[in-house]
Write a structure and sequence with these properties.
about 800 residues, alpha+beta, Nucleotidyltransferase, domain 5, Taq DNA Polymerase, Chain T, domain 4, 6-stranded mixed beta sheet, 4-stranded antiparallel beta sheet, about 10% strand
């Protein structure tokens, strides 16, 4: 978790979430955060090697400590630290003094040393163990000794974390047995000659001074001479403005949203300064109000209402008056495709923000208002319009400064009208076909469930991971591959089941069961409810800021994830049909990302293959396996196809091996052979990673930018993901830009020439149209021409266009 500038934030984020949960769950009356003091303390003075074997704290962690301090200050939670004393001693002293004054104390820690402080008024909550709360009985159950003997236990067995030496040769079990029998370390040392086991007896007799020192080191000092009062720790309301500023700076947008939801709704003064707010009732009043406004004019639509804002003034008006708003004004909007078709916004702040950040999560109006204007989102349309206007002025300048104006004007802004038109048009769905498919799926789910129950020997809830884990890994004795981090149940995640599926049929059946139930619930059962009664069509919402690569996403329903390689996925597509008597026309770019890989890398072998219209997977198989193309088997081609697309997505040998079901060494050999034959690809990947590591961002062919801050992360998983993203984004992002350009040009042609045909859907590299009979052939030719001519590359762009009575059959 990092900001766009590369500042790590996960520590602050987790700490903030923990504090929020603690306060909400336990509602404390007093609260303090205790920090370690810098420099030596009384323990290091007694034993120079105290904590000497600890590894260096990661720099990413240390860099966030100042931010956690600022967070505590903004939350008005006192931060306590005292020279020469460790945090444990300060906590111990406060716990003792507060409990002696009649207050119940909860220590929040995962440090077992703190358990020695537990008594009838002091408890410990361990957030690392599902918020387990320890009382004296729980401590004894966990440690094997009561709280007042925890320090004695640590003194005997030692503590590798704090480098407390303990008694050599006495481990955890031996230490517990000795404490239970003799009590304190002091008593044990006095009676060491009575210890039966020779190893323990000699260790105690020969290391008395070391054990006594260990007891001093392990014992928390509860008599630290600190100055504090209980009242100084009383819970206070946070400093919301300071907190909002910190959340903005660290780009903690979910925290911002939570903060704003608990704040007093914005008013004219708190939202936009002294504003002249009014309600417009007539067209004449609206015309008069707009007569001398200073551009741009902020505009937003709400429930049966819209808001307009100019410099120093904002108004609200009924939705019916929207048709009276002059189309020629310079408007600023948030998600301009929501405006009526007759209106066009010169400034779309949603698109501006996404161009600057490529962060879908930070593009809500609330997040943008907090980040850029330093205030909570407005709760009324007139003040929201004022916020949009202010954002437009600020972000437009930033887009200009960052050289992103061309992308905005040539792709993002004109695409807005196209998407709005598609959303309003919608697509027909055959409800009878869905109803029939639902019955088939129910039958299939029942059949697969029966197979699972037959193997298990009994029925159980397949949707319950704990029940499934028990059946598979206990009752059937299938080797388990791990447990989940939080619940500690057996993992039954998809990757686990996929790795077991070849050897254990129950795993394959569960995967099939999950896919069937997900498809049925997400699409077959849900789609009919989303059909609008007034149009009889399904109207999905396209989100131009939904994916960091620049790809479009869709919602209500999400049509991007309907599988095309499974029978049931194809059957769902068969329910999408054209206007009665019309035909669906479906166009799909052929291997566009591999063609872009050839263009970017200038690899001669890859480029030649596409220029000669060769089957790229067969050519790759021939190159990788060292055979003539005519000798390539179907299995060779399948493996080569996986390698081709694996290169695009930065797949490792481990991932390729798992996908193909082959040894890792063999997968590694495939990848090495690929790079040996396609040296230009390897060079481009290396150069791209190096450039992004230096620049901090990657670019598409058309100049769309995506910040990638983790290129030098210490965490190898984060660094590896960043490197894969650096390679994939120019390919996937450029492909997204190309199809957007094609959509813009196709829609312009449809409108300019008065076609009846309509563009309905965009799904990744695919466009779906419906056309009346007399326009089908002409539409096919026009779409193919404009898609293939959308961008000039070193290799040909190829669009495959088909027709059919439904989406599945349009070939």
């Amino acid at each position: 978790m990092r900001t766009q500038g590369g500042v790590p934030t996960e520590v602050v984020y987790i700490f903030n979430a923990m504090l929020k949960k603690l306060r909400a769950t336990h509602q404390p009356e007093y609260m303090a955060a205790i920090f370690e003091s810098e420099g030596p303390n009384f323990r290091t003075e007694q034993f120079a090697e105290y904590k000497a074997n600890r590894t260096e704290t990661p720099p990413e962690f240390m860099a966030q400590i100042p931010h956690t301090r600022r967070l505590l200050e903004a939350l008005r939670i006192p931060l306590l630290e005292y020279d020469r004393y460790e945090a444990d001693d300060v906590i111990g002293t406060i716990a003792r003094r507060a409990s002696e004054s009649g207050v119940d104390v909860v220590i929040v820690s995962s440090d077992k040393d703190m358990l020695q402080l537990v008594n009838d008024r002091v408890f410990m909550l361990n957030p690392a163990k599902d918020d387990t709360i320890y009382d004296a009985a729980k401590v004894e159950e966990f440690m094997g000794v009561p709280p007042n003997r925890v320090a004695d236990l640590l003194a005997l067995k030692g503590d590798s974390v704090d480098n407390i030496p303990g008694a050599p040769g006495i481990g955890d079990k031996g230490a517990k047995d000795l404490i239970v029998k003799f009590g304190s370390v002091e008593t044990l040392l006095e009676r060491a000659s009575e210890v039966e086991r020779k190893q323990y007896r000699e260790s105690l007799l020969n290391n008395r001074a070391q054990v006594e020192l260990s007891k001093k080191l392990a014992t928390i000092d509860t008599q630290v001479p600190i100055e504090w009062t209980l009242e100084s720790l009383a819970i206070q309301p946070p400093d919301t403005e300071t907190l909002r500023g910190l959340y903005n700076e660290l780009e903690m947008f979910s925290a911002l949203k939570d903060l704003d939801s608990t704040c007093v709704p914005a008013t004219a003064t708190t939202a936009v300064g002294e504003m002249d707010a009014a309600a417009i009732e007539t067209a004449e009043a609206l015309k008069e109000w707009l007569a001398d406004v200073e551009a741009p004019v902020g505009i937003v639509t709400g429930a049966m209402q819209f808001g307009l804002a100019a410099k120093g003034r904002c108004v609200s008006a009924s939705e019916s008056l929207l048709s009276k708003v002059p189309a020629e004004l310079e408007y600023a909007a948030y998600d301009a495709k929501c405006l009526p078709a007759r209106l066009s916004a010169a400034h779309d702040v949603l698109l501006y923000e996404f161009l600057l950040t490529a962060d879908p999560g930070g593009c809500t109006l609330g997040a943008m208002t907090s980040r850029h204007l330093g205030r909570a989102a407005a709760t009324s349309v007139e003040y929201a319009a004022a916020d949009v206007r202010a954002l437009a002025i600020k972000l437009s300048a930033e887009v200009e400064k960052e050289g992103l104006r061309k992308v905005y004007e040539e792709i993002d802004r004109p695409l807005t009208r196209v998407l709005g038109t598609m959303e309003r048009t919608g697509i027909r769905v055959d409800q009878a076909a869905l109803a029939s498919l639902a019955l088939r799926m129910e039958s299939e789910i029942e059949r697969v469930s029966g197979l699972i129950f037959e193997i298990a020997g009994r029925p159980f809830n397949i949707n319950s991971p704990p029940q499934l884990g028990k059946v598979m890994f206990e009752e059937l004795a299938i080797p388990a591959m791990g447990r989940t981090g939080k619940t500690k149940n057996y993992s039954t995640a998809a990757d686990v089941l996929e790795s077991l599926a070849l050897d254990h049929p129950i795993a394959a059946h569960v995967l099939e069961f999950r896919q069937l139930t997900k498809l049925k619930g997400t699409y077959v059962d849900a789609l009919p409810a989303l059909i609008r009664p007034d149009t009889g069509r399904l109207h999905t919402t396209f989100n131009p800021a939904g994916a960091a690569t620049g790809r479009l996403s869709s919602s209500n329903p999400n049509l991007q994830n309907i599988p095309v390689r499974t029978e049931m996925g194809r059957e769902i597509r068969a329910a999408f049909v054209p206007e009665p008597g019309w035909t669906l026309v479906v166009a799909d770019y052929s291997q566009i990302e591999l063609r872009l890989l050839a263009h970017f890398s200038r690899d001669p072998v890859l480029t030649e293959s596409f220029r000669n219209s060769e089957d790229i997977h067969t050519r790759t198989a021939a190159e990788v396996f060292g055979v003539m193309p005519l000798m390539v088997t179907s299995e060779m081609r399948r493996n080569a196809k996986a390698v081709n697309f694996g290169i695009v997505y930065g797949q490792s040998a481990f991932g390729l091996a798992a996908q193909l079901g082959i040894p890792r060494g063999e997968a590694d050999r495939y990848i090495k052979n690929y790079f040996a034959r396609y040296a230009g690809v390897k060079r481009w990947i290396d150069e791209t990673i190096a450039h992004v590591r230096e620049a901090g961002f990657t670019l598409t062919l058309h100049g769309r930018r995506r910040p990638i801050p983790d290129m030098d992360a210490r965490n190898p998983n984060a660094r590896g993901f960043a490197e894969r993203t650096a390679v994939n984004t120019p390919l996937q992002g450029t492909a997204a830009d190309i199809i957007k350009l094609a959509m813009i040009r196709i829609q312009m042609r449809l409108e300019a020439e008065g076609w009846r045909s309509r563009m309905l859907l965009q799904v990744h590299d695919e466009l779906v149209f419906e056309a009346p009979p007399e326009e089908v052939d002409k539409l096919k030719a026009m779409v193919k021409e404009l898609m293939e001519g959308a961008c000039a590359l070193d290799v040909p762009l190829v669009a495959e266009v088909g027709t059919g009575d439904n989406w599945r059959d349009a070939k």
